[in-house]
Amino acid sequence: MGILDGTMVAVGIDTLTVAFDASLSAIGWVSTGYLLALTLTIPVTTWAVDRFGGRRLWLAGLLVFLGGSLASGLAWNIGSLIVFRVVQGVGAGVVDPLVLTLLARAAGPRRAARVMALMAGVLSLGPVLGPVVGGIVLEGLGWRWMFLINLPIGLVAFLGALRLAPRDPAPEPTASRLDVIGVALIAPGFTSLMLALSQAGERAAFTVWQVLAPLTVGAVLLIGYAVHALPTRRTPLLIDLRLFTRGGFAASVTVMGLTGLTMFSALFALPLYYQQAHGHGTLTAGLLVAPLGVSAAVAAPLAGRLADRFGAREIVRAGAVVAVIGALAFAGIGARTQELWPTLAALAVGAGLGLVGAATMGSLYRTLPPPLIPQGSSVLYMLNQFGASVGVAVVALIVQTAGKADVIRGLHGVYWFMTAAILIILAGTVLLPGRPGARPTAPASGHETQTADLTLPGA
């Protein structure tokens, strides 16, 4: 629901501008406010899942999201819509990372790859279905239904959780305290970085004060968190940075961040190609982009089964090679290229990234000890969102720099940028787990053999 909402709002920007008689920059805060609220909430969810229980927190987050959806659909001016989207973002900041934690706990290490592969397939479809569903909703029902459509879906999810989700155990009296200093540093720090990237994408520049100011604030706050989370500290930490001493974890979250960057770069650039080079409308362009997400959704469950047999490293390598072939094919298309060829290239990129993302998510949750799953989920989701924001900002900068007169040259630059990101993924596979049962060939440090013994302060 959250992914669909985000992409539908992107399609409906012109409609909202007319409906509220507002500027484009004001409408931009409908998306930016949601994204910032989501990012600000994720770190707190890491602590709250053990303090209040996964089932209770899931139901509460879903209710907040649905309340924000209903209020957004009833908004009377642009200010109220932005406020209600912030409420919706708080709910999404609880539900989005929490679903990964709940699935990982339910699946266990043996089934983590398959379950996360199914989840990766769902996540791959969302950004592609959004423009299609958004075009249909906007043409047939009006802008309010971009948000009201969440209500029947969310009601089914809520009732399903009441019936099927396992009940939470009684809260432990020794549950760790909330790392208030950590929240005050990492949440606004990461949010400031997301704001900087959002402004960079909107203004197609990185050297303006609207980008540099939040970028500086974010960097200072995150450095402050790193100092706060020094290994000598014994207070409970929101995210223990010792996680990154595990080569497999560090490689997995980096690969997922680069996967988000590459996928959203393609999702942002490909509609521009169909609209500006071929003159298609929004709905047609959205339909032509669909093969990218469909192939990723089909490849993801396959990746889970293959990773169980051959290991994540080999599957991620194969997926990266397929995605590179597709990205290089995109770098050769022109304004007169038949639409069959970009469609085939999109299928290759989608399938390759589907293999990469699903196998990487599975390997992450297969190797994380249960107490570290909430923290791992938060880091994974934040870096994936961060990668997506970087991708959109860089694509906007490349395309705007090339100008409308030479849109093809700009898009070629985007696909060379994607190719470089995928090659970095390929290089990082040496740190991913290999064939199940095989000894690691390139451990990152001595911590790699001590992962099961990593105990977090207050855990």
UniProtKB/TrEMBL annotation:
UniProt subcellular location: Cell membrane
Domain of life: Bacteria
Transmembrane region(s): 26-45, 57-76, 82-103, 115-137, 143-166, 178-198, 204-227, 248-274, 280-303, 315-335, 341-367, 379-402, 414-432
Region Disordered: start-end pairs: 437-459
Swiss-Prot/TrEMBL keywords: Cell membrane, Membrane, Transmembrane, Transmembrane helix, Transport
Membrane topology: Multi-pass membrane protein
Domain named Major facilitator superfamily (MFS) profile: residues: 1-439
InterPro entries on file: EmrB-like, MFS, MFS_dom, MFS_trans_sf
Family of this protein: Belongs to the major facilitator superfamily. EmrB family.
Name the UniProt record assigns to this protein: MDR family MFS transporter
Organism, as annotated: Actinoallomurus vinaceus
